[in-house]
Design a protein that fits this description.
By secondary structure, this protein is of the alpha/beta class. Helices cover 48% and strands 12% of the residues. The N terminus is likely disordered.
Length: 248
């Protein structure tokens, strides 16, 4: 009888040994004014195959330049940065990097900071005492086009909503204004002149005046004091940041 050559049979490999067509790692830009924190976070994220830290920045201005060079999928930024208030920095990042997701990584965990960050365009909010697994989970959620609050921040917002927190629950909802109007509103509340605002956003004074008139009409505000009060009450500007801007 003719001998037969046994044909190899398919054997399932453990999932860890299968060749996969993994998607490219998501590109991350880290923004923090403390180099040692940037390096530590970078080391943690480098342990994840789906993350690639492509650059660091120590200020909002540097982050904007680096983002233009590196085209990150995600910008992870602190709120307390040199050269601009936290909300101002977020607005500048959002305007300059419309295609990137933005996650805030900060020590601040008040409802005021959380509301202001989300209103300014943040897609996620994570406090710095989060565990590595919490951080990784949060960044993946943000990269999946979700709005993510870490557990402590979610609890803070929920407690305030239920009237059980210490913070005031009288923050006003933010009516529909454009991103540019929101940016100008914060600069007006910080006491900046039309000329200074025009220089900051690279537009004419006449354009700034038009945006200013539109937002004041929409919000029924009549002077700078009204604008400042609204910015603080709606969570766009903290009283501490306002005090610092007045001292500067």
């Amino acid at each position: 009888m003719d001998s037969q050559i046994a044909q190899p049979t398919a054997v399932d490999r453990p999932s860890s040994l299968r060749l996969s067509t993994a998607t490219p790692a998501r590109r991350i830009l880290l923004v923090d004014d403390h180099a040692i924190l940037r390096e530590g976070i970078s080391a943690l994220l480098s342990l994840e195959a789906d993350f690639e830290v492509v650059g660091h920045a120590g200020s909002t201005a540097e982050a904007i330049t680096r983002a233009a060079e590196l085209a990150p999928d995600l910008i992870v930024t602190d709120l307390s940065m040199p050269g601009a208030s936290g909300v101002q920095g977020l607005l500048e990042l959002r305007r300059s990097c419309p295609g990137a997701r933005i996650a805030v990584l900060t020590v601040h965990n008040t409802e005021e900071h959380i509301r202001a960050a989300l209103a300014a365009g943040a897609d996620g909010y994570i406090v710095k005492d989060a565990s590595r697994s919490e951080l990784v989970h949060g960044l993946r959620a943000v990269l999946s086009n979700q709005i993510h609050l870490c557990a402590r921040s979610s609890a803070r917002v929920v407690r305030s909503y239920l009237g059980q927190g210490n913070e005031s629950t009288s923050t006003m909802p933010l009516p529909t204004v454009t991103g540019r109007e929101r940016e100008i509103l914060i600069m007006i509340a910080n006491g900046q002149s039309n000329k200074r605002i025009a220089l900051t956003i690279s537009r004419s004074i006449k354009t700034v005046e038009k945006h200013r008139a539109n937002l004041m009409r929409k919000l029924d505000l009549h002077n700078v004091a009204d604008v400042t009060r609204f910015a603080v009450n709606s969570g766009l500007l903290s009283e501490d940041a306002l005090a610092r801007s007045k001292m500067g």
